[in-house]
Design goal:
Length: 80
């Protein structure tokens, strides 16, 4: 599920306030891109919606809980 403009701003604010995302922990590059909200399958009930954040240099992908970031409600799960 792609981010809408409001979700994108919420994600950028959340990352800026809480996570030292720069530089990349793998290659040291300073730039990253926000991806989509994806569902991680679990062995329990349901899925975990996560935002992908990707290093523009090496492709290192980090996952953050979209629920914790305030991007989707706890009960909503993207259908992608
Ligand atoms: Zn990197």
């Amino acid at each position: 599920m792609p981010l809408d403009p409001q979700q994108r701003q919420t994600a950028l604010d959340w990352l800026r306030d809480r996570v030292p995302i720069n530089p990349c922990l793998i290659c040291g590059a300073p730039e990253f891109s926000l991806g989509e909200i994806v569902n991680l399958a679990t062995t329990g009930s349901g899925a975990v919606p996560c935002l992908t954040v990707t290093c523009k240099e090496c492709g290192n992908v980090r996952l953050f809980s979209a629920v914790l970031m305030g991007l989707v409600p706890q009960t909503e799960a993207p259908t992608s």
